[in-house]
Specification:
Chain lengths: 280, 356
């Protein structure tokens, strides 16, 4: 049997999966317009829950906190993770490399509860005040292994001969890194950043352990509210967040497509110049 | 490389934007640092308008944080690294925190309005003389049923074993609560320390399992309102919200008596703004504020003066403000200590796992 991506069965399967994944989100968004106040019955259209979100300054503050932590944590983790991946790539001894990779994977698969509890113990042991910084550091910590795993495959895809050629032509190590190494692994770095960003954005378990002193993130806040029944204000907020992430993804794809088109155009021009024999 | 630099710069620019946004919000709300009062309370357990009014009245700014269980709150405060000025634990947790020296002894000369509190809710076993805690809300455990779906109205814990409720009953997921149902149905104390009887009680509870549809927590509220089940055991505050949402629902306090529980305000040892904490306690003790809060939250207030200001229909409801005679029958949880608590938990787990 030949597997093709556009066979009918595949398409139906894909469609069902997407419906299952997106239905709850749209259900949630649908009820954010419910005048009834609960998710039991749709009684009428209203904007009041959205109004409530914008009037709730504490909630907006928490959203901004969450985004800030996610941004900075993803940035720091991408820095550390990228250089970590490059280091692992260049480790000569096979055994050491394997050891480093296993240590990285263990962090990936170890349960959040364990990571959260041990970080809490660590912070309190050294007398660190819980709050913004403790949350940020924890998020950096659990995001690094993800970035490493996103960047490493790109490194292995890269042609070593390019680096050798550059070195032969007299490039110093900074030039090799900035002109060859980093550009060829950029897609990996970017996806590492975005993965770390989303991980940080929705992390509950680790954050739950290390928040304190009035600092809170959205996941923790919604969880505490859930005890008394999540209000439709949260639905409205979720809808806004969904639109925000949708815009981010579309924007990112737009930039990718734009860049690709420009490259294609440039390639065409070069081809045109060569074939017409125009001398530069 | 250029792409990466642009990426880094845009992330930093966005972060800066966020920081200024947070800064603006803090300024708009008037946070400056040393005038902040950090309150650690259950989720959605205070009328938000009261927080605003407190800020306007006193000039303190409230940084409000929430928790979902006594245990989570205990861990946060015990581990240090935080400085909550106000916390609201339940009675058994208060006695544990007193034992572990985590609470600040209250200076009663700084507290105004304690005279409004019904003496019944003061000087209780978990905090004699109210040296550490001030009552915030109280409630009971009871049976909620839907009069459309049930013919025999339950009046006692023993009714829960009735065959007519087969696969209809939802229980709150708490070891002391469920074991308590068994204990009180046989006329024992909720704080019984007798292994043999406890094992017998667990065996009796196992006989109830054909009736049990689910052992869950907060979801009970939603299921009952949506009429997914006809009868449940839950707390009075939860019940008041259910009754509010669905008029077919009713709350019954079983005739054998039930558990009387409290959430009290305490000041942890780690508090930084003790002065503000006293101001907050006094603010909540004011009858007017206590009344607003009780109407919003739906749990029963211990503040007698506040009751006079509230909707008489709420106060007259024996489901949520039972008579003194009924309260006489109720019992407060005592801190059993880890060993006995372990036994309660183990037996409850056995009941939960029991299949018939």
């Amino acid at each position: 049997m030949k597997l093709t991506s556009n066979s009918k069965g595949n398409n139906i399967f894909l469609f069902i999966i997407f419906v299952i994944l997106y239905l709850p989100i749209f259900y949630l968004i649908f009820y954010s317009f419910n005048a009834g106040g609960t998710m039991n019955q749709f009684t009428g259209f209203t904007w009041e829950h959205y109004q409530a979100v914008f009037e709730d300054t504490r909630l907006i503050g928490i959203v901004l906190n969450t985004l800030l932590v996610a941004m900075l944590a993803a940035l720091l983790a991408t820095f550390i993770g990228t250089f970590g991946a490059i280091y692992i790539y260049y480790v000569k001894k096979k055994q050491n490399k394997k050891l480093l990779l296993s240590l990285n994977s263990i962090l990936m698969v170890s349960p959040d509860v364990i990571i959260g509890a041990s970080l809490l113990i660590l912070f309190t042991l050294i007398g660190f005040n819980l709050g913004f910084v403790s949350v940020l550091l924890s998020h950096v910590a659990f995001s690094i292994p993800i970035v490493v795993l996103m960047v490493l495959p790109r490194l292995y895809e890269m042609k070593d001969s390019m680096i050798q050629a550059a070195e032969d032509l007299g490039a110093n190590s900074w030039q090799v890194i900035s002109r060859i190494l980093l550009p060829s692994i950029t897609p990996g770095i970017l996806s590492g950043f975005f993965m770390a960003f989303t991980y940080s954005l929705d992390d509950f378990v680790v954050t739950f352990f290390v928040t304190g002193n009035g600092f809170s993130t959205l996941a923790v806040e919604i969880y505490s509210r859930a005890r008394r029944g999540v209000s439709l204000e949260i639905n409205a907020l979720s809808a806004l967040m969904f639109i925000f992430t949708l815009a981010l993804v579309l924007g990112y794809n737009g930039i990718q497509i734009y860049g690709q088109k420009r490259r294609e155009k440039a390639a065409k021009t070069v081809h045109f110049i060569e074939s017409e024999g125009i001398s530069l | 490389m250029r792409k990466l630099l642009i990426g880094i710069l845009s992330v930093l620019a966005f972060s800066l934007l966020l920081v200024s946004g947070i800064d603006y919000l803090n300024h708009a709300q008037g946070f400056t640092g040393d005038n902040t009062l950090t309150v650690y309370n259950w989720g959605d357990y205070i009328d938000p308008s009261l927080l605003k009014e407190f800020e306007e009245e006193t000039g303190y700014k409230i940084s409000y944080e929430t928790f979902d269980s006594n245990e989570a709150m205990y861990t946060k405060i015990n581990q240090g690294g935080t400085s909550y000025d106000i916390a609201v634990p339940s009675e058994y947790m208060i006695s544990r925190m007193i034992e572990e020296n985590m609470l600040r002894e209250l200076d009663h000369s700084q507290i105004k309005g304690l005279e409004h509190i019904n003496p019944r809710f003061l000087d209780l076993s978990f905090d004699r003389g109210n040296d550490y805690s001030i009552p915030y809300f109280w409630g009971t455990l009871g049976i909620i049923y839907n009069d459309k779906m049930i013919e025999d109205i339950p009046t006692s814990w023993n009714d829960l074993w009735d065959d007519s409720y087969r696969n209809e009953l939802m229980l709150i997921d708490g070891a002391r609560e469920v074991m308590g149902i068994g204990l009180q149905s046989e006329g024992y104390s909720l704080n019984l320390k007798n292994k043999q009887i406890l094992v017998e009680i667990a065996a009796k509870l196992k006989e109830m399992t054909p009736n049990v549809k689910a052992i869950i927590a907060d979801e009970i509220k939603m299921y009952m309102i949506q009429e997914e089940a006809s009868i449940a055991v839950s707390f009075s505050g939860e019940a008041s919200e259910m009754v509010w949402e669905n008029e077919n629902l009713h709350y019954v306090i079983p005739e054998e008596g039930t558990n009387l529980w409290f959430d009290n305000i305490v000041i942890p040892k780690t508090a930084k703004n003790v002065e503000g904490a006293y101001a907050f306690i006094n603010f909540l003790l004011e009858p007017e504020n206590a009344a607003i809060n009780a109407e919003y939250v739906g749990y029963s207030t211990p503040n007698d003066a506040a009751k006079e200001l509230m909707d008489p229909e709420i106060i007259a409801d024996p489901q949520f403000y039972p008579s003194d005679a009924a309260i006489e029958n109720m019992e407060v949880y005592e801190n059993l200590g880890p060993e006995w608590l372990g036994l309660y938990n183990d037996l409850f787990l056995e009941v939960k796992m029991y299949r018939n």
